[in-house]
Amino acid sequence: MEPKHSIVIAEDHTILRDGLQAMLSFYPEFDVVGTAGDGLEAIRRVETHQPDLLLVDLSMPRMSGMDAIRDVKKRFPQTRIIALTVHKTDEYILATLQAGADAYILKDACREELILAIRTVLEGNPYLSPGVSQKVIEGYLDGKKQGAPVTAYDSLSAREKEVLKLIAEGYKNREIAELLCISLKTVEKHRANLMKKLDLHNAAALTYLALEKGLVTP
Fold first, then answer.
1. pLDDT tens by residue, 205-214
2. Does 51 reside within a domain?
3. Do 50 and 18 have their domain in common?
4. String of DSSP letters for 124-154
5. Mapping DSSP to helix (H, G, I), strand (E, B) and coil, where does residue 189 land?
6. CA spacing 20 to 30 A to 149: which of 16, 85, 96, 198?
7. Cα–Cα distance between 191 and 173 in angstroms, integer?
8. Longest dimension (CA), the chain
9. How many domains does the chain have?
10. Is the residue at 186 inside a domain?
């Protein structure tokens, strides 16, 4: 009997998360070993199970899927990652691939396409939805060769982006400290660094940037 491929699903919408788990349960080759409702929880599930595959939404609370992808790829490079999202813009696609995703699938894909993507990635090959243009693929490859331009936002650390996301979601410094298990002083330092690096000087400006970058949804 062929060994099953272990999968963790990270999706903040319960109906979609449960639907994906139910769908994959029909395939004997897959074993959903964990689910998560946000980016931080996704990382914890990967730490616990070290799955063959992480299926992750990009827009989630507490930590974005993109930051979770970056963290998982750095610490668990053997785990393949499929980004499942509604975002179709070049910026999103390129940033997600650069973060380390092995596949980029649009949420309007059919079940057959998702299963094909999962099998393709588990075989060690990349997969991009047909909706992702050749231009985007070429742009990504060119960027890898030439070095993508670094913006102020690109210079932020993963932790600073976590703090930025939580600020945009309306959390106070003390609440952020509790959520991330760090000290209040450390949160205040991250907040000061954000404002300095981004040249933004209040919570409203930080929130607008987080919305623009897709860290939070309106």
1. 898 888 888 7
2. yes
3. yes
4. T--EE-TTS-HHHHHHHHHHHHH-PPPPTTT
5. helix
6. 85
7. 9
8. 60
9. 2
10. yes
